[in-house]
Design brief:
The protein folds into two domains: 189 residues, Rna Polymerase Sigma Factor, Chain: A, CATH 1.10.1740.10; 150 residues, Bifunctional nuclease domain (Roll). The two termini are 41 Å apart. The protein has a seven-stranded mixed sheet with strand order 3-2-1-7-4-5-6, with helices on both faces. The chain is 53% helix and 14% strand.
Length: 350
């Protein structure tokens, strides 16, 4: 099997206007994008629309990609943001635009499952965005109002404004850039989704730790959020903990471990690990999945999935419900309960 050009090479070409290069990037990473969108919004039609919008956003914003080698995760992240925006629009879709634009608008939700808290936060969201939208140039203001506040599709907006779909998408892109600059410094978009709709949280492996008692030693891997404010500790076996410690400390083995072998087999097959998911916590058992770049999903033990993610430098996404359940658990522990870090685990193994 002959591998195609590296992502970084294709990104460089796409930035110079090479449409074929961008199409190859999309073909390569679209399965993962669609899988992420389907998981986020459930509705397959909405997921397809979200994936297509994400591709458009990526094409228009490819110059913002900081690491060209990570086009796939970047595209998937755009897809999740689009899904979040669509879920917000779904809550607002039944509201009267005319009433909303008046000083004292009232909500008329079409979804009977939307509770008072959701509607209150959504009202705040609309009020803040409405003010920013009114400051946009006329063409962008009209497109953004119809698309984001009234929930029309790009085709419907184009018909309403008497222009093309491409022109509408260009206006929306410019409007998003302006709104991002205006809203990002002082306003954080409220989370208006229920727990089951929340999008996965990005986490990384902070350390692998163990208790000091050799006879009854217990091991955990510690995941932390990007801002370091939340931790998730997962019990793992001694062999898996040692493998993580070796990778974290950069220890080279004379012969490949089973995780190195798995990574090598994936590479030989022209595949790579796209992400590791921590999906559920049930009866004190944590469940995980590995996701390949073609969208294939494989159930795995967390210890194995995390070892592969660390070797492949793949993103780790945790269902927020897992973190919430872990925080509520009666036996919730802290990393300080496990004094031995990765280096100490290695020293104890020699």
């Amino acid at each position: 099997m002959t591998a195609g050009p590296a992502d970084a090479v294709l990104v460089a070409a796409a930035r110079k206007g090479d449409k074929t290069a961008f199409a190859e990037l999309v073909d390569r990473h679209y399965p993962l994008l669609l899988t992420m969108c389907r998981r986020a919004v459930i509705d397959p039609h909405m997921a397809g629309d979200a994936a297509q919008e994400a591709v458009l956003d990526a094409m228009l914003g490819i110059d913002r990609l900081r690491d060209p080698d990570r086009f796939g995760p970047w595209l998937a992240g755009i897809g999740l943001n689009v899904c979040r925006r669509m879920l917000h629009r779904r809550i607002r879709a039944g509201w009267s635009l005319d009433a909303m634009l008046d000083a004292g608008w009232t909500a008329e939700p079409v979804d009977p499952g939307a509770g008072p808290d959701e509607l209150t936060v959504a009202a705040h969201l609309v009020a803040v965005v409405r003010t920013a939208v009114r400051a946009l140039p006329p063409g962008q203001q009209a497109a953004a109002t119809l698309y984001y506040l009234d929930g029309l599709t790009c085709g419907e907006v184009a018909e309403h404004l008497g222009t093309s779909v491409g022109a509408v998408k260009a206006r929306l892109h410019k409007a998003r850039a302006t709104l991002r600059r205006q809203l990002a410094p002082g306003w954080k978009e409220p989370a208006i989704m229920s727990t089951t709709d929340q999008l996965p949280m990005s986490m990384r492996i902070r350390d692998v730790r163990a208790t000091e008692q050799a006879a009854e030693r217990r091991h955990v891997v510690v995941l932390t959020t990007d801002d370091g404010t939340q931790n998730l500790m997962i019990w793992i076996g001694s062999a898996e903990a040692l493998a993580l410690a070796r990778t974290l400390e950069g220890v080279q083995l004379p012969r490949p471990s089973v995780y190195h072998l798995t990574a090598a087999l994936l590479q030989a097959a022209g595949r790579r690990l796209a992400e590791t998911r921590i999906t559920a916590l049930t009866d004190q058992v944590i469940y995980a999945q590995t996701v390949l770049d073609d969208g294939a999903v494989v159930d795995a033990r967390p210890s194995d999935a995390l070892n592969l993610a660390l070797l492949a430098d793949a993103p780790i996404h945790v269902d927020p419900a897992v973190l919430q359940a872990d925080q509520r658990a009666d036996d919730h522990e802290d990393p300080t309960d496990y004094p031995m870090d990765a280096r100490a685990i290695l020293n104890a193994a020699t």
